[in-house]
Amino acid sequence: MTNTPEAARPGLSIDRTTVDGIRVITLRGEIDHDVKDVLSEALLSFGSVTPLRTVVDLTGVTFMDSSGINVFVAVHKSMSDAEGWLRMAGAQESVLRVFQLVGLDHVIGCHSTVEQALIA
Fold this sequence. Notes:
Layout: E1 12-19, E2 22-31, H1 36-44, E3 53-64, H2 66-81, E4 85-89, H3 93-102, E5 109-111, H4 114-119
Parallel strand pairs: 2-3, 3-4, 4-5
Antiparallel strand pairs: 1-2
């Protein structure tokens, strides 16, 4: 019997739900170069169309580097081009600080809770 180690998995869990026609993507873990493609696909794919309205719940994200910023900028642009929007919710202080350092919090709405982001 051979024991084959499981392939390394990205350190990010992604859950999807819909609230009143708005997609809510809940992320847990770390957002870095290793998960950028998975994250981008999760945010942009919704059948064959770009979702128009999405809230990203960041309460479970413990780390984010510039790869995450790049993904969120691209997703924001794509959704804005489709006359939709992207909003962030519940970012921990360290993650929110990354948004603030690059000024992305002035471009993408950052809210304390998912509920606030849904009604903003």
